Amino acid sequence: MIQTEGLTKRFGQLVAVDNLNIHVEKGEIYGFLGPNGAGKTTTAMMILGLLKPTEGKVKIFGKELQEDYFNIKRRIGVLSEFQYLYEDLTAYECLRFFGELYQVDDIDKRITHVLGLVNLDNRKHELLGGYSKGMKQKFGMARALLHDPEILILDEPVSSLDPYGVKEIRDIIMEENRNGRTFLISSHILSEIERTCNRIGILNRGRLVAEDTMENLRRRLEDEVELHIEIDAPNEAVTKAIQGINGVISVDADEKQYVIKTSTERDVRPDIVRAIAATGNVVVEMRRHEMSLEEAFVTITEKNISLLAKEGVA
Amino acid sequence: MSVSYRMNAVKVTAKRELKSTLYGIGLYVVLTIIFLITSYASIRVSIMNVVNNGIEAIQNPISWPFLVTVFLASTYLGLCSAISISREREQGTMEVLFYGPVDSFSYVIGKYLQQILTFGVVLGFSIIYFFLISQITNFGFTAQFLGLLFLSVFLASSMVAFGIFLSTLAKKTIVGVVSFLALVLFFLIFWAAHSVIMGISGTNMSTALIYTRLVLDNINLVIQWISPIAYFVRGMVAVSVGSLGQYLLSIISSAIYSAILIALAIITFERRGAKR
After folding, report:
1. Which residues of B touch A101 (CB under 8 A)?
2. Could you give the ipTM of this predicted complex?
3. What's A108's domain CATH number?
């Protein structure tokens, strides 16, 4: 659906986006991550044709934007980080204007539907200038969905929302994705990306440093496994028994819980259970600590910075 | 297909702006002021001449007041044009428009069309106003007035195109406003100075005045094509001498001037982009 080939943007000496190749597949939710200034918004602007690339190209629906400008634009919905609205219009008037621009059929019905999705249907005759930041963001989502787009590009879609609003937007994204819509979401709220996205691209200093599913990213980054085990009566004998298992790197014990780090080469969980049982103890709970996206993000970007430093770029 | 999408974008953007103008109070306040100025400065003079001399020998007494109205209204619309694009860029709403099916061509043409349609509304009020004046004063409301109406659209178009071009150049609204007003004032002063100096008899001229005249005349060779005021002057001359040829030439030159400025505005806009 969206493909960038060697996409590069330079502002004078500054390389904002460097040889970026991403591929967003039909029907997926692609999370675009990166620290501030990584080049996420610049990339989104180039995809939308609002900034011209220095090098490389963008293909949407298999075509470059210039090849079929109006048809491509009509099939994309955009929610930007900052809501620039015609504040002298009511929500209804503004959506009506955009509905006419996108030539939406049965505009009134569609306006009622999208405002209903974001729970603003009872405030549609209020001026947008009087909306709170969160309401404006939800309105932006309604505007992005108004013309029934196939692709939605969302830049920080939940940054101004309260937890209830965040859930509303998350539910809409999941529901619309089930309806077949493709999403490209750029966000710094990692937990949201982790919850909603199928695939993630991590951008740092204009370079794509990782692109994979969350599962694969974890697997690639974890060089050790962390197990949290709770037993009924911990003692020194248990600690020694676990430390003696081949593949166990370290054991930390507090009152009832053990934090055990093991290598990723073999699954030592059965050995641990057997060792604990041999000391006359019972395992009450065992769980594997999974790397969060936040940890993965920090790991990847730090690794990348080190790499760049070695290359003499950083 | 893309032509119809583009035309839709032109229509929808122009309609939104036009509605906003018509529902606002600004246009009506400005029109009232313009009609008061016209009544006081032009029509009152003719009436006073009739009162004082018992006769006013003038071919079409409402033509000049009408051209004054057109000039003031066009300058106002030109100023609105100079503000419109830079303000939308500043507010970021332009960026949102360009997320969708709007391109540089449809955006600039939409802005231009909206101002021309607004001028159509101004013309509507002007027709009513001057018809009432002609009924009250018995000044002729002739067929030539219809010709003036037609010409006025092209004169307004020159001013609007000039404002839009400046607006695409300006990053900030204030820059658009100041540059428009400064240039219009400069062109007006230049036109007045040039007219005065050219009106002085060639005999008994000092050397300094001869050189000043020569310099102004040479500058005028350029200004007469880049100044929207110059197109008004051409129109006024055509009307005052009653020449059909000059009248047509005035219409054609205004149309070409507008087209060139709008094309330049589209190119400038395309280069700068819609990003805030």
Report:
1. 8-9, 12-13, 97, 100-102
2. 0.84
3. 3.40.50.300
